[in-house]
Here is the input.
Amino acid sequence: MSEAAQPPGLVAALSRRLGGLSIAFDAALPAKGVTALFGPSGAGKTSCLRMIAGLDRVAAGTLRFGEATWQDSKRRLFAPPHRRRVGYVAQAPGLFEHLDVAGNLDFAWRRAGRPAHLDREQLIDQFGLRSLLSRRVGALSGGERQRVAIVRALLSDPVLLLLDEPLSALDGAAREDLLERLETLHARLAIPMIYVSHTIDEVARLADHIVLLDAGRVVAQGPLNATVTRLDLPPALIEAAGAVIEAVVTAYDPADHLAELTFGGGVLLLPRDRASLGEALRCRIAARDVVLTTERQTGSSALNQLACRVVAVGGADHPSQCLVQLDAGGTALLARITRRSARALDLKPRGQVWAQVKATALGG
Here is the structure.
């Protein structure tokens, strides 16, 4: 079934006032995969997550998950958090300080009835907790605390996992370590996950579906790449504009540390310390990193050039600039260029262009 044909996992129509912010969360989320709630600080992302978890009784409206109704204000129906079977990991993990790591994990495991379908030992190893089991919570680093909190949430046997910016307080090494573990979890997780973030690079690596929030309201939602390549994003979210490419490693140059990724629109080279042939990777191409030309270039330091068709041209958040929506072999791309360049290139729908991207802009 296509995503559009699948029944949504969670349908929300919730609203509340929070200080000067009016929150209206109207969304339909898939029954599988990772959905990102993305937006700038103060957009209402955490508030929406708390409403989903049942931690906010002030919110009014309806909330359904699968066949279960979790909230219906008109019918005075409100399922408390424990009835919703939601695993919730906050920015500051609320671990039991009087217990060691094993005690924290066992609490969730026992309370869930020691579910046989959950592999407790595998989760402990997957998140690198084996050597930490006897350690007290107070002796853990920030990254270790978050790993314990995530495994504890999973061992509670949830039907939905909620993560509220779990990487926000971590330094570079700890952040990358946990992000890699979450990528692995994404590939194996049988339940849906809602992941809150204001960092588009995290979203690009983890999410399948995205809900864009601005000033407390949902301004766009849908499959990841189709949504972040739209031309009608509000100014507060323009920096997130770009493409997320799903590709496969078809070659690797260990001398130059460059991986060759192949997708429907062509081939991309990007820095990579290591890569395995056949490995599936995601690559984010920010709109600001795309240069357009009318002909394929030679003698350029930009290693990546993709043949594209112009789909549409729209405005940006500055009057000197515009966004150009492109099609590269069926994959949507986005370029952010000046209006002067658009006129000079005579960009029109169905016109042919080449999109240049520096390999160094694609990360490592």
Notes: The CA atoms of residues 141 and 190 lie 29 Å apart. The two ends are 34 Å apart (CA to CA). DSSP finds nine helices and 20 strands in the chain.
